[in-house]
Structure formats: structure tokens, C-alpha cells
């Protein structure tokens, strides 16, 4: 129901307020943003960005650190002394304060661009544990100088770094420094007026009336009773009502003062957490049917659409530079949605001629997958793996944006990192192998994409990751890619060279056929949005 209400509000924002809402502040629930991106209330060119509530981001950060402090062994399997766990507990609030201070400092900088501010904020959040635990090597002016390397020795530092990565993933949301406290407070008050959806109040305007009463309660508090009374009977309420109002306002003020000045106390009442309810209500969108375009119209629109994808060499370079923050950039979402990206090349190239393309197109264009525990684990540990690979290779791995092919403009790739002008980096952190080393995971068939030859890593040439890497190398016009597998107990990597023959024979024909004969048809004349089966070619 919540998602339906918000989607309806976005659809009517132009008519009611003459506004386009291109940002939404939300918590960890991704259901609403999925529905909004599927509904496309302002068309496919307006990407609605979700700004994570800063309170939720920091709370999750602190909770994970507290959980880590209770573990007697690190993810590497080494024992963590109690003194270090106690040290972590004592510094948790300072870790949070360091992030808040960095956000405040970067938001006040007016002499640099927004993109540079976000990059510097990310650098500060990455460095915040160093600041708190006294390592000054990469600190800015306001960081301390004392060294503390024991945590690195027992593996606790890598675990802190993994938690830190989940924080830096939301750097731009931290930069906005917004929260949804107002909405949460109003919903809390509304729940008291409507009985928590337990009673049917939809008849005779009862629900709308209670919503309006909740708005008044949110704005003026207990004094609403006096306002209602004066509005209805044109005079002040009686003595007992005034006493009740005065008592309620006094309690509210006391509660506010306790929060501001009283020392924090342990929560005695246990939390009762309930998972999110399944959507209910109108889940099917309203379809506006119109007949399919004729074959000649489709061909004309296909030519026009392909022309919109064309970029000059300078535009390709600028796009890659401007999308280095990847999922945090609107351009990254907008441009990759029109194209095939390297992460799906293997799946498409392996499709049989007799296999329907409709389901694959539906997944690519309308899929609502926002990640699971495995992808979350990969995001949290990617930066740690990247730092270790940098130390082993003695190179600097730069962030990568979206590369667009200079000839086939409908192909794109976003590698995990760049090395100089000739190299790429692709990092995999499989959650299924978090308790073993990469070598043990391969030998025990936990990791099936690779084999070991003379104790060296070799990626199978028929695996989807190999297709992804060859696609990224061809699109970026680079010569080699370091494919890395990382677990808390070790790291293995292979240097893979670009294979133009493999691209020409096993990839390019299949990708071109899929896009030109299938995917582009849905992009220019969507049947899915009209409630009709997606075309399976012409």
C-alpha cells in the first residue's frame, strides 16, 4: 500500500504542484524505489534517485561495529584479544563522530565542485578508522598521528574496513545529509488515529478525516484540542480540557529536555522487530493500450534511437570521467539503461537460437533486483580487496566510470578499477567462500568459475566472468585485466589479455543480433508497459 500511495503521488505531482520529484529520501527498504523505477512516472529519461536517510546509514554503521566487537575471531579465523575488542567498543562513537565531522566539513566547502566534494568525502570516510585509531599516513589536517598496527596483524582491521565500505557506498547520501524523520514522526502519530490499519475506516471519509487530524497533531501537538473546540463551538474549551492540554504539553517538554540533557540510559524494553509486510492493494499498473508500430515505423524509429546513442570520442571520455561514482550518478543509470553492459554479455552470448529472448529482455529492462546478501557482501569487501591488490602489485587502482564502445554505441562496461592507461581490474568477493581461502574454495568446488594450474589461478574461458572481462577490454580498448578472487583468508589473481579473435567469433555477432533484433524493439515501442507479451524478434 505504501508503495502504491507514493507512486500515485509521483504520477500526480505535475498536475497538482507542477513539480518533478527526481529524488526520494528513504530508509533501507528498496521496495518503493523499485516500484517508482518500474512505473517511470515522468518517462524513461527522468531517473528517480534514492537518497538514503543519513540516520539509518550511521545507525547501521554503529550496529555492525558493535556486532563486530562481540566476535572473538576475525573473518581470517584469527583470535582477537579482548583488549582490542574493548578498544573498538570505546571508539565506536568516535567513529560515528568522525563521519559526521567530515560531512559537515565537506558541505561547507564552497570553493570546489560538487563532484570533488563527494570524492573528498569518500576519502575522509575511508580514512576515518585511521583517524580514530591513530594512523596518520593518509589523514587530512584534522587527523591525529599515533600509530596502531596490531589490529591489522590479527585481521580485525580488514573487518572494520568491510563495515566502512558499506558506509562509503552511500557517500552521496551522506553528502545530502537528509533524513526522513518528519515522515516517520507523522506516520507514528497517524497510526494512533487510525488504529494501525486494524479497522476499516475507508467509508464516509473517516480515514481522510483522521489523516487531517494527524497533520494538525503533528503541527501543533496537544493544543489541537483547543483549536478544534474553538473552530466548532466558537469558544474556548472547559477547565478539564485545558488541564489535559497543559499536562500533555508539560510531558512533551520534559521528554524533549531529557533527550537533550539527560545521560543516555540502557533500553530496558526489548525491541520487537517485525519484517515488512507484503504489498497489498492495486499492484497492477494501469495500461494504456495502443496498436504496435508497423514494420516501417519500427525501422524508422530504430534508426532515430540508434542516432541518440552515438557519442563522439570526447563525449565518451567525458561520460567515463563523470560516472566514476557509478551507482551514485544519474548519468550512469540513464546511459547504461539504454545499452547492453558487460555483466550480462555471457548470459546473452550463450543463449541458444531456439531460446526465447523475451524473458531476458524483461529482466534487463524491467527487473527490480536491487541486490541480495551475496552482492551486499561483495560491496562491503571490494575496497579491502582492492587495497590488498594494490599493495601486492605496487600499483594505484583508480575508480572507473561507464565506458561506451566507440563503434557499437549500444555496448557499455563498468569495470571495478583502472590501472594506468592499459589495464582493468575485476574483483570478486564470493560470500560462499568467506570461511576458506580462494585456493581451498576452488579445490572444494565452492568456486566453480576457476581452476588451479601449478597453484596459479586460471579463469575458465566458458565462464560468464570471462565474457564480461573480454567485453570490458574490447569496449575500453585496454590490453589486460587483473581478475581477482578475494576472501578474508587470502587473495588470488590472474592477468587476462584481450582476445580480439574471441570477441569477433564468440561475442560480437550474438550481442549485435540480440540488441538490434530484440532489445531495441522494446526500447522504442514497449509492449510490456501496455500489458502485452514482449516481442521475440520481428
TrEMBL record:
YqaJ viral recombinase domain: from which residue to which, for each copy?
331-477
Give any Pfam family that matches. Mutator
All residue ranges annotated as the Mutator-like transposase domain in the record: 1-144
The record's listing under SUPFAM superfamilies reads: Restriction endonuclease-like
GO biological process annotation, one example: DNA repair
The record's listing under InterPro entries reads:
Mutator_transp_dom, NF-kappa-B_Signaling_Reg, PDDEXK-like_dom_sf, Restrct_endonuc-II-like, YqaJ_viral_recombinase
Among PANTHER family, the record links this protein to:
EXONUCLEASE, PHAGE-TYPE/RECB, C-TERMINAL DOMAIN-CONTAINING PROTEIN (PTHR46609), YQAJ VIRAL RECOMBINASE DOMAIN-CONTAINING PROTEIN (PTHR46609:SF8)
What's the protein name? Answer: Uncharacterized protein
Q: Which organism is it from?
A: Schizaphis graminum (Green bug aphid)
Cite the source lineage. Answer: Eukaryota, Metazoa, Ecdysozoa, Arthropoda, Hexapoda
Amino acid at each position: 500500500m505504501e508503495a502504491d500511495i507514493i507512486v500515485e503521488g509521483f504520477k500526480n505531482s505535475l498536475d497538482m504542484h507542477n513539480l518533478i520529484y527526481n529524488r526520494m529520501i528513504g530508509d533501507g527498504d528498496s521496495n518503493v524505489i523499485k516500484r517508482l523505477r518500474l512505473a517511470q512516472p515522468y518517462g524513461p529519461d527522468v531517473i528517480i534517485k534514492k537518497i538514503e536517510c543519513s540516520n539509518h546509514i550511521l545507525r547501521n554503521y554503529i550496529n555492525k561495529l558493535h556486532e563486530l566487537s562481540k566476535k572473538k575471531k576475525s573473518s581470517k579465523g584469527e583470535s582477537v584479544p579482548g583488549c582490542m575488542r574493548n578498544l573498538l567498543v570505546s571508539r565506536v562513537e568516535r567513529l560515528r563522530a568522525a563521519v559526521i565531522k567530515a560531512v559537515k566539513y565537506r558541505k561547507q566547502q564552497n570553493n570546489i565542485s560538487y563532484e570533488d566534494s563527494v570524492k573528498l568525502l569518500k576519502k575522509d570516510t575511508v580514512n576515518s578508522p585511521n583517524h580514530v585509531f591513530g594512523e596518520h599516513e593518509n589523514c587530512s589536517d584534522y587527523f591525529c598521528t599515533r600509530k596502531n598496527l596490531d589490529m591489522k596483524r590479527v585481521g580485525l582491521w580488514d573487518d572494520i574496513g568491510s563495515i566502512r565500505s558499506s558506509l562509503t557506498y552511500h557517500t552521496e547520501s551522506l553528502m545530502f545529509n537528509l533524513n526522513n524523520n518528519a515522515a516517520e514522526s507523522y506516520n507514528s502519530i497517524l497510526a494512533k488515529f487510525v488504529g494501525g490499519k486494524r479497522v476499516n475506516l475507508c467509508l464516509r471519509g473517516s480515514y481522510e478525516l483522521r489523516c487531517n487530524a494527524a497533520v494538525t497533531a503533528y503541527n501543533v501537538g496537544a493544543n489541537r484540542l483547543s483549536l478544534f473546540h474553538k473552530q466548532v463551538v466558537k469558544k474556548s474549551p472547559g477547565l478539564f480540557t485545558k488541564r489535559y492540554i497543559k499536562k500533555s504539553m508539560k510531558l512533551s517538554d520534559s521528554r524533549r529536555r531529557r533527550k537533550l540533557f539527560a545521560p543516555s540510559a540502557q533500553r530496558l524494553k526489548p525491541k520487537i522487530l517485525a519484517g515488512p509486510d507484503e504489498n497489498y492493494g492495486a499492484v497492477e499498473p494501469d495500461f494504456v493500450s495502443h496498436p504496435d508500430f508497423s514494420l516501417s515505423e519500427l525501422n524508422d524509429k530504430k534508426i532515430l534511437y540508434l542516432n541518440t546513442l552515438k557519442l563522439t570520442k570526447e563525449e565518451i571520455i567525458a561520460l567515463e570521467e563523470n560516472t566514476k561514482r557509478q551507482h551514485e550518478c544519474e548519468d550512469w543509470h540513464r546511459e547504461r539503461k539504454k545499452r547492453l553492459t558487460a555483466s550480462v554479455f555471457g548470459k546473452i552470448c550463450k543463449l541458444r537460437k531456439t531460446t526465447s529472448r523475451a524473458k531476458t529482455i524483461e529482466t534487463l529492462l524491467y527487473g527490480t533486483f536491487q541486490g541480495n546478501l551475496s552482492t551486499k557482501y561483495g560491496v562491503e569487501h571490494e575496497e579491502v580487496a582492492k587495497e590488498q591488490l594494490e599493495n601486492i602489485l605496487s600499483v594505484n587502482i583508480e575508480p572507473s566510470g561507464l565506458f561506451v564502445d566507440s563503434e557499437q554505441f549500444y555496448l557499455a562496461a563498468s569495470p571495478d578499477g583502472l590501472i594506468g592507461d592499459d589495464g582493468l581490474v575485476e574483483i570478486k568477493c564470493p560470500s560462499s567462500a568467506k570461511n576458506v581461502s580462494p585456493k581451498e574454495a576452488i579445490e572444494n568446488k565452492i568456486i566453480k568459475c576457476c581452476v588451479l594450474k601449478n597453484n596459479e589461478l586460471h579463469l575458465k574461458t566458458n565462464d560468464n566472468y570471462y565474457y564480461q572481462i573480454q567485453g570490458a577490454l574490447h569496449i575500453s580498448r585496454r590490453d589486460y585485466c587483473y581478475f581477482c578472487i578475494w576472501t578474508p583468508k587470502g587473495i588470488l589473481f590472474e592477468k587476462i589479455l584481450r582476445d580480439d579473435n574471441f570477441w569477433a567469433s564468440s561475442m560480437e555477432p550474438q550481442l549485435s543480433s540480440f540488441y538490434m533484433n530484440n532489445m531495441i524493439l522494446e526500447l522504442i515501442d514497449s509492449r510490456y508497459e501496455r500489458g502485452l507479451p514482449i516481442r521475440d524478434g520481428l
